[in-house]
Structures are given as C-alpha cells and as structure tokens.
C-alpha cells in the first residue's frame, strides 16, 4: 500500500482530488462522526489503561501487606 494511503484523511484527500468533489460529497458528512468515534475509542483506551494500572497497584500492595 502506498504510504499516503495509510491514513483515512489521506485516502479521502486523494479520492477527492482524483475523482472530483461531486462523487464523494454525499459521504463527507461521515467524516466528523468518524473522528468523534476515534476520540471516544482513544478515551476508552486511556481509561482502561489507567484502570489496569490501579488494579496492578492494588495487587502489589495486597501482596506486600501479606508479608
């Protein structure tokens, strides 16, 4: 795959520049929703990571207090 085609935005830009705005204009409303989904996915990932860190800390403290 071409390096410029790796990101969604780059693919959309290339498609628009090659085929004109008329063909992909109906799909342009999807872009903000896609970005919002990416942001929500990133927030969930960060939240899950922080939860895992707290779980590990709790297990370490519980194990350490057993001695």
Describe this structure in words.
This protein is mainly alpha-helical. The chain has a domain at 37-67. It has three helices and no strands. The longest helix has 36 residues, at 30-65. The protein starts with 7 loop residues before the first helix and ends with a helix. 0% of the residues are buried. Mean pLDDT is 71; it is low at 20-24.
Structural class: mainly alpha
Largest sheet: none
What's the pLDDT, averaged over the residues? 71
| Spans where pLDDT lies below 50 across 5 or more residues | 20-24
One letter per element, helices H and strands E, the order comes to HHH
Shape: rod-shaped
Number of helices: 3
Q: Ends: how far apart?
A: 56 Å
Measured on Cα atoms, how large is the radius of gyration?
Answer: 22 Å
Quick tags:
67 residues; mainly alpha
In summary, what is this structure?
The protein has a domain at about 35-65.
Protein topology:
Layout: H1 8-19, H2 21-24, H3 30-65
């Amino acid at each position: 795959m071409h390096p410029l085609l790796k990101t969604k935005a780059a693919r959309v830009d290339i498609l628009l520049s090659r085929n004109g705005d008329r063909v992909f204009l109906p799909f342009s409303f999807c872009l903000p929703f896609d970005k919002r989904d990416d942001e929500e996915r990133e927030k969930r990932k960060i939240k899950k990571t922080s939860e895992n860190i707290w779980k590990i800390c709790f297990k370490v403290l519980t194990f350490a207090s057993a001695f």
